[in-house]
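Lab notebook page, bench 4
Experiment: in silico fold of construct C2
Operator: M.H.
Input chain length: 89 residues
Purpose: comparison with the prior construct
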Amino acid sequence: MMQRFSCPFCGPRDETEFFYGGEAGNERPEPAENISPVRWAQYLHMEKNEKGRAREIWVHLTCGEFFVMERDTVTHEIFKTEAFHGERT
């Protein structure tokens, strides 16, 4: 069954138009030149991936805009979507 996500810029669209960008709140370690390879790998690849309510970064491939979606990872209920303002937190 296809889901419908609501882009804050374009409105409701089929899930095939969207791409998952990661968990919101995963703060980029800085300054980059002082970050160990282990810490960098953790930032890039390790996510909480918890069941239940989550805040995630998504991109709408049609308009190219990034946004934050708050949804339940078990039931797939979407609580809200909002514009992403460049911060990953």
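Observations: The mean pLDDT is 90. The longest strand covers residues 53-60.
Next step: discuss at group meeting.
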